[in-house]
Structures are given as C-alpha cells and as structure tokens.
Amino acid sequence: MAPLVFQEIFVNTRFISNRPTWLAWLLFSAWASAASAQALPYPRPDPQPTAQAADPATPVPAVPYRSAFAKLSNGVEQRRDDWKKANAEVGQFKNGHADLLKWEAAQASQPSSAPARAAQP
User: Fold this and answer.
1) How far apart are CA 38 and CA 32, in angstroms?
2) Percent with pLDDT over 70 in the chain
3) What angle do CA 74, 92, 115 make, to 5 degrees?
4) Which terminal CB of the chain, N or C, has fewer other CB atoms within 10 Å?
5) How far is CA 107 from CA 41, 104, 110, 111, 113, in A?
6) pLDDT band of 79, cuts 50, 70, 90
7) Would you say the pTM of this structure is higher than 0.70?
C-alpha cells in the first residue's frame, strides 16, 4: 500500500521532467521571489507646505458661525420672557418654597382690586 501512495503523491511532478519546463519553472519562481522582495519607495513630502502649516503666523480663513439651534422651532411658547426679570422674581423668595407659600397666602387674603367680569355664553 505504501508504494502506491508514494506513487500517487509524486506522479504530478512528471511535467517537470524535461529541461525547458524545468528551466521555465526555475525562472518563474526566481522572478516571483524577486518581485515580491521589491519594496515601494517611501514617498517624500514637500517640506514647504509642512513648514507653512507649522508656522503660527500662517493666515487661515475665518470660520463662519452657524448656530446649532438656528433650525429648531421655538416650541409651544408664543412669547419670550426676560430671564433677568424672571431671575429677580424668583430671587425675592430667600427661603425658597416656604416664602412662596407665605406669599401665596398673603395674595389670597387680599381683596381683588378689579371686580371679576361675568362670563358671557
């Protein structure tokens, strides 16, 4: 069995038996190894633009400002409140929610200055 297996493995090498084929195979393998061993030359950049980019005095174009919120809608509020005024109104209650409750109680005990109008159907 072993000689039969040995013969099956090496039967494919018979095409190299004549001299021109052997020479062609040798030249091809030498050419392939030489071609794969060649390295591409490393590209050398032009030093002038690199030097200009490193110089802090190099002029650059101004970047236009574009707000990220420009295309957003204003929401459901129809008017805009002055934030300074709103901040001052909240700032009058130094003790926070406790002062607010006292203020609401005082507002409820005071009579309304204008009489309420009757609702019309």
Assistant:
1) 10
2) 70
3) 80
4) C
5) 87, 5, 5, 8, 11
6) confident
7) no
